[in-house]
Write a structure and sequence with these properties.
Layout: H1 11-24, H2 37-44, H3 48-60, E1 64-67, E2 71-74, H4 78-105, H5 109-128
Antiparallel strand pairs: 1-2
Length: 129
């Protein structure tokens, strides 16, 4: 995880977002334990209560569950729940801006598909090296 903080939102929220990205990216899988509050607090040099608040938010969102004496664990279905929410957020918040830019630039669907194909093939070539 990146150790840099930005001033646009509270640190607990940034910790929560980092955890959700780890779930979405498959770094944390269903049933996996979250790192302990003490470990995260020490690694990121933040107050343990800040980490606890981030974890509590994940629990409130039904993404993790606390197992008494064992810690916090990613719940079954957490990734699907996150994907659904992120897709909805993208379509309602980001897509209108992306679509407006596409329209403004007069890009055609085939140009966009060609750009994706070029990007995919260049990434594949880099991975072969």
């Amino acid at each position: 995880m990146d150790h840099e903080w930005n001033n646009s939102q509270p640190i607990y929220r940034q910790l929560r977002d980092r955890s959700t990205h780890m779930i979405l990216d498959g770094v944390l899988k269903e049933g996996d334990p979250l790192p302990s509050v003490r470990t995260v607090a020490a690694e990121f040099r933040v107050n343990p209560l800040t980490v606890l608040k981030a974890y509590q938010q994940l629990a409130d969102e039904n993404l993790v569950e606390k197992k008494r004496g064992l810690g916090m664990f990613v719940k079954t279905g957490a990734r699907d729940l996150l994907l659904s929410g992120e897709r909805e957020k993208f379509l309602s918040e980001e897509w209108p801006r992306v679509h407006a830019t596409i329209e403004r630039l007069g890009l055609k669907p085939q140009e966009l598909l060609d750009a994706v194909a070029t990007d995919v093939s260049s990434k594949a070539a880099q991975e072969e090296k």
